[in-house]
Structures are given as C-alpha cells and as structure tokens.
Write a structure and sequence with these properties.
Blueprint lengths: L14 H13 L6 H13 L5 E4 L4 H9 L7 E4 L6 H8 L3 E4 L11 H6 L5 E5 L10 H11 L2 E5 L7 E2 L2 E2 L6 E5 L12 E4 L3 H11 L3 E4 L3 E4 L10 H11 L2 H19 L3 H5 L16 E4 L6 H10 L15 H4 L9 H9 E4 L7 H15 L1
Parallel strand pairs: 2-3, 2-4, 4-5, 5-8
Antiparallel strand pairs: 1-9, 6-7, 8-9, 10-11, 12-13
Helix pairs in contact: 1-8, 2-8, 3-4, 3-7, 9-14
Length: 373
C-alpha cells in the first residue's frame, strides 16, 4: 500500500493558537500593538533580559543590525557561502561589499581559520550562520571579532533554542537575528526578531522598522533616519506567543527525532554509502534540520526525484551563494570555496518537524538507503 506523503517540513498550529488569532481579529487591533509588545517582552526574558525587537522577516533584522552598526559603502562584511542568499544580500543592500570564507567540512558552518584569514583593513563585520541550528565555536568567533574590532551579526535564523555550552544562543554576544518563517522550529507565519545590546540600539531599531518615525505627545512626529516598513503584526505576534509556550518541548522532540535518525542509519551507514551525516550534537543544536551530504555518484536532482517516488519530501539548504549570477557579476567564480561548492552541490535536508514520529524517521531512512543502494 502506498504510504502518505511525508513532507520535508510542516508547521504545527494548534486549536489554541487558532482561537487566539481569532480573538485578535475580533479585537480590531491587527497591526503592531499589545501582542507585539507582549511577544517582545517574552523574547527578552528568554534571552536573559536583552532588548528584543520583532520584525516582519528574519532578513530585515540583519539589514537593520548592519545599519545600526554603521556598516555601509567602503566596508566589507564576511559571511559563509552556504546560507540562504538573504545573508549576503543584506550586505549589498546597505552598500557594503560581501566577502566569503569557506566552510568547515564537518560542521558545514563557516571555517573560523579561513574567516580570520579573509579579514582585510576594510572588514567591519562578520555574519556567521548557524546551519541547521548548530553554533560555531562562539569563544573563538568573538575572540576574532574583538581582536580585529569587528561587529558580529549572528544569523541565528535557524538556531532558536540552541545553546553554546550552557548559554542560550542570543543571550550573549553582539547582534543576534532569528527567523520565525513557516518552516522554523517556532513560527509566526512570517517574521523575525533582533536581539540588541542596549536601549539606544533598540530605539534605533524601532526607527528603522517603521519609516524612521519618532512620535511624542499627541501629534508630535519626526523622521531623522531613512527607515522602511518592517513591523510585525499582532496577528503574527499572537502565533508566536502561542508557539513560544512550547519551545522547550519542541526542541526536546526534535532532539529525540535526530537521535532516532542516527540509530536508524546505523554505525556503518557512512562507510557503506559514502554519504556524510551531520554532527551528532544533542546538547547544543536545536535540530532545525537533519542534513545529509550525498556521495558524488548520484546527483541531488536524481536523489530528490527518487525520494519523491517513495513519497518522501526533501529540501536542500543551500546552494553556494557566490555562484549565483548576482555574485558572479561581482567577481566570484567556481573553485574559490571548494568545500562549500561540494557541500552545496550535494547537501539535502530530510524530513524534520515536530509532528513526526519514529516511524516517519524510519520511512525516510529506509528510502535514503534504498535510493543510495
């Protein structure tokens, strides 16, 4: 009997969330209002009391962090080639120059040795990415940043609920940007938040998110910076509040599913298949994704087609940014970041979402083994 399709990702929206959203719709206050303020207060508490501001995406959060840091024309910002293209696009958006450093073949995050080697007198900031929720070596990252006087904008889009040792990602460091897009561990449908360093940065973030406007009194208004339209709605914030109540259970469930993936693949899988499993980290990673690097004997497109024939959804995260046309036109080309190019060509993301069970994991693993054999 054909089994039902197992998607790569699927948000879990419970009846309590649906009812809470209905209450907001009935209230008549559906744009930024008390729910946004409550969500920001909850997030601030989660991140150790640091100021947090919410936005309509986890992309504008990085752009705004760069603007607050004063990054602009003439400056370079170093990031990884393996991320969603937004990570590099925001550098161009503020008028700065993107630079890349190759990735570590095991963690698939930016290689900190290569990052430090890429620093020039024009480098003003670093955007590390925590792929699938796995942090980089945070002590080493900030030692490099402090040594060279660089700002850090952590692209923690996938890392809500992740830790570095005993410290929650976002609770320390410089700027930390999180995404609440539909496939993230918790969602607001679309949205994101930026963790900031002080009240002054928080006030500037508020200006940038809503046309640069500052209000005072009943009718006082001024604009002293060029802002955009990036505010989160109360509808989105309500979804976030309801989701966030379950963050610990969601993270625990994903770690359980990841453990079962490793058990189902078995200790001899990598040697037999020549595929590469992710780092088996069950303390720090929130297991936003479970990713596999395929052996070179099969193309990703062929693998994905065969998995779809078996009713298993597959994603891929991500193709190398520097090989997109926009970046080739800036002088990037094949061979510059060979590890990222190999991983970006062969990486796939297996099904991973909170409503899955162990049987779903076994179905996905059985399909992978069948295709690779």
């Amino acid at each position: 009997m054909t089994q039902p399709f197992l998607p790569f990702s699927k948000p879990t929206i419970d009846e309590a969330t649906i009812a809470a959203v209905a209450d907001v719709l009935r209230s008549g206050w559906i744009t930024s209002g008390p729910k946004v303020q409550a969500f920001e207060a909850m997030l601030s508490g989660y991140f150790g009391g640091r100021p947090v501001r919410t936005f309509n995406s986890g992309t504008c959060t990085m752009e705004i962090a760069l603007r607050i840091a004063g990054i602009g024309p003439g400056d370079e910002v170093i990031t990884t080639p393996i991320s969603w293209v937004a990570t590099a696009n925001v550098i161009i958006e503020v008028g700065a120059t993107p630079a890349f450093a190759d990735i570590d073949p095991v963690t698939r995050n930016i290689d900190l040795d290569k990052l430090e080697a890429a620093i020039t007198p024009r480098t003003k900031a670093i955007i590390p990415v925590y792929l699938a929720g796995l942090p980089v070596d945070m002590e080493r990252l900030y030692a490099i940043a402090n040594k060279h006087g660089l700002r850090v904008v952590e692209d923690a889009a996938q890392a809500i609920g992740s830790y570095w040792k005993d410290r929650r990602i976002g609770a320390f460091g410089d700027f930390a940007s999180f995404s609440f897009q539909a496939n993230k561990n918790i969602t607001t449908s679309e949205g994101g938040c930026l963790v900031l360093n002080d009240a002054e940065e928080a006030r500037l973030a508020e200006k940038y998110r809503l046309q640069g406007v500052t209000r005072h009194g009943f009718d006082g208004i001024d604009v002293d910076v060029l802002g955009g339209k990036f505010n989160m709605t109360d509808i989105a914030a309500t979804i976030g509040l309801e989701q966030f109540a379950h963050i610990e259970a969601i993270t625990a469930k994903r770690r359980m599913l990841a453990r079962h993936y490793f058990a189902a693949f078995g200790s001899g899988f990598e040697a037999q298949s020549r595929a590469q499993l992710p780092v088996a980290d069950f303390e720090q990673t929130n297991w936003h994704m479970f990713q596999l690097v395929l052996p070179e004997r099969i193309t990703r497109a062929d693998f994905m087609a065969k998995m779809m024939e078996r009713n298993i959804g597959i994603g891929y995260h991500y193709p190398p940014i520097h090989l997109f046309t926009l970046y080739r036109e800036r002088g990037f080309k094949e061979g510059m970041f060979p590890v990222a190019e190999r991983v970006g060509r062969q990486i796939v993301s297996l099904p991973m979402f909170s409503a899955m069970n162990e049987n779903d994991v076994e179905r996905a693993v059985d399909a992978v083994k069948s295709v690779l054999q």
